[in-house]
Write a structure and sequence with these properties.
The complex is a heterodimer.
Chain A: H1 7-32, H2 38-56, H3 60-80, H4 85-106, H5 111-119, H6 127-156, H7 158-163, H8 168-187, H9 195-209, H10 213-238, H11 242-268
Helix pairs in contact in A: 1-6, 1-8, 1-9, 1-10, 2-3, 2-4, 2-8, 2-9, 3-4, 3-8, 6-8, 9-10, 9-11, 10-11
Chain B: E1 12-21, E2 24-34, E3 39-43, H1 50-57, E4 65-70, E5 73-74, E6 84-87, H2 101-106, H3 120-132, H4 148-160, E7 166-170, H5 178-193, E8 198-202, E9 215-220, E10 223-228, H6 232-235
Helix pairs in contact in B: 3-4
The chains are: A mainly alpha, B alpha/beta.
Bound molecules: adenosine-5'-triphosphate and magnesium ion (MG).
């Protein structure tokens, strides 16, 4: 049975491939800045936003977007106020997951709905939801392209970038908002607990093989899309949870890339 | 009131500057003037505050007291950053992700290249600094594959790519062998003598700036001593 014949599979492929293509673009900059877990923290906050939306009967995407943006601003603020980035992330992280479940249980949200958000349920998407995801993905691409030279300069060396005239404070804010967009765009397809993996794992895999930043980004994006397609096919034929399958395929991709690199190194030596 | 235009004659001026990290005082009432085309070496023991002094001078830290001016302008309102090149002291030049030498060098232009196309003069300048720092053969190489000396030269090229009038180098010879050090010295000589750049060179190692430094200042115990026109090695107390 050809999975592409089903419209729900078409929607799943479009949504997962788009978000998996753009997640590593943003992820590369947070990995390079040593903040790989920022996406994870934002995922937890988005969960609180969704819980709150359930409680007041608002749109979950809007709830998640609102709360991640607020958390992003707070995170940047706290970082500047001297509270170590790591600790700031941890506070928001635990606060988010606790508040999210508190709200969701108070709102009597179905357990399947909650699990779907945490681990992704791309087969249940509607076309309007897919268009929202496409819009968020497009916004991430536009921002990445427009800010690319500055983001690279800042990610590589923040102080040197400041002396070169790069407005790093505003740029950190923009990057944080981009993380929020990816998290919200990926929550219904890949899941809030797993979307962060798609920001980091394809980048780690690409870094094994590429020799420039630009090539790393391009390759990571391709690895993201390939993981989404293979993961969804696996989920379809093997009846696995799609979000988890996608992330596990990406991790397998990383293992392959790392193995390839160590073989290539040994051959060169 | 319009701010005065950049004053080329005094690229860097710290006047009566004091600074503390939290409660621990690092610098007391320190002053330093660097004139156009001047090569000033800054020496002093570990932890004496040399890096802190440079960060104050570049507006990366705000002084508790005193004034900092770049090209005659208060550092807080200074905007002509293409006039300034900075090579930070390297904790480690390790980058989590692959980055090519060319990408590192070009990142020095990040604030200027708004468009996707590079201007002809930018391309020319990139080629010039790459050649000046003897990096032609490794433009496409991954930074991580280079020697310590080559990495340092790539960071210097990044600082020079906007053709600044002031170059601040913080311990540029850490982990660099004698041969690479002499390549670096010749590049710096060219910058001071031909491009008339003002250079502030922070180092433990007097050999790196001997024959180049017109002035050596010593930071010790949070205060500064100056030795005008004296041979570097004597003032630096070896
Ligand atoms: N971010 C910081 N927070 C707190 N204290 C700091 C910080 N950076 C430096 N210090 C302290 O300030 C003092 C001056 O440090 P600084 O790095 O300016 O010295 P330095 O002369 O550059 O030393 P080195 O020769 O090792 O490079 C040291 O005692 C150092 O421990
Ligand atoms: Mg230092």
């Amino acid at each position: 049975m050809n999975p592409f014949e089903f419209e729900f599979m078409q929607r799943a492929f479009v949504a997962c491939a788009l978000i998996a293509a753009v997640a590593p673009l943003v992820g590369s900059f947070i990995v390079q800045r040593g903040q790989s877990l920022v996406g994870d923290g934002m995922g937890h906050v988005a969960f609180a936003g969704v819980g709150l939306a359930f409680l007041v009967g608002a749109d979950p995407v809007l709830g998640a977007l609102a709360l991640t943006v607020v958390a992003g601003l707070l995170l940047v603020r706290m970082g500047r106020g001297g509270l170590a980035g790591d600790l700031a992330i941890a506070l928001i992280f635990y606060g988010g997951i606790a508040a999210g479940y508190l709200f969701a249980s108070r709102a009597d949200a179905a357990q399947t709905q909650v699990v779907g958000l945490l681990f992704g349920s791309p087969l249940n998407l509607t076309w309007p939801e897919v268009w929202v995801i496409a819009g968020l993905a497009a916004a991430v691409v536009v921002l990445t392209v427009a800010l690319y030279p500055r983001l690279v300069a800042m990610a590589f060396d923040e102080e040197a970038a400041r002396v070169a005239g790069v407005p790093t404070d505003r740029l950190v804010l923009a990057l944080t908002l981009m993380v929020a967009m990816v998290v919200v765009g990926g929550m219904s397809s890949i899941g809030l607990l797993l979307i962060s993996a798609m920001m980091v794992v394809p980048v780690a895999a690409a870094a094994q093989l590429a020799s420039s930043y630009r090539a790393t980004l391009a390759l990571a994006s391709a690895i993201g899309v390939a993981s989404a397609v293979i993961g969804l096919l696996g989920a379809h034929y093997g009846d696995y949870a799609p979000g988890s399958a996608i992330v596990l395929v990406a991790i397998a991709g990383y293992a392959l890339a790392a193995a390839w690199r160590s073989i290539a190194r040994r051959a060169a030596a | 009131m319009t701010p005065p235009g950049p004053d080329r004659s005094c690229p860097l001026e710290l006047d009566g500057v004091s600074f503390a990290y939290g409660r621990s005082m690092v610098l007391w009432d320190v002053s330093l003037r660097v004139r156009q085309g001047e090569f000033v070496a800054v020496v002093g023991p570990n932890g004496s505050g040399k890096t802190t002094l440079m960060k104050l001078g570049l507006g990366l830290l705000q002084p508790g007291a005193g004034q900092v001016r770049l090209f005659g302008q208060e550092v807080r309102s200074f905007r002509s950053w293409s006039q300034v090149g900075y090579v930070p002291q390297r904790a480690q030049a390790t980058s989590a992700l692959p980055v090519s030498v060319e990408e590192v060098v070009v990142s020095g232009l990040a604030a200027r290249t708004r468009r996707f196309r590079r201007l002809a003069e930018e391309v020319e300048r990139i080629d010039h600094v790459v050649e000046l720092l003897a990096l032609e053969g490794s433009r496409r190489s991954r930074m991580a594959e280079l020697s310590g000396g080559q990495q340092q030269r790539a960071l210097i090229a990044r600082a020079l790519v906007t053709a600044p009038q002031l170059l601040v180098l913080d311990e540029p010879t850490t982990g660099v062998d004698a041969e690479a050090r002499s390549v670096l010295r010749e590049s710096l000589r060219h910058l001071v003598e031909v491009e008339k750049m003002a250079v502030v060179y922070v180092s433990h190692d007097p050999e790196g700036f001997s024959g180049l430094a017109q002035r050596v200042v010593e930071v010790e115990g949070g205060r500064m001593r100056e030795g005008h026109g004296q041979p570097a090695v004597q003032v630096a107390k070896g």
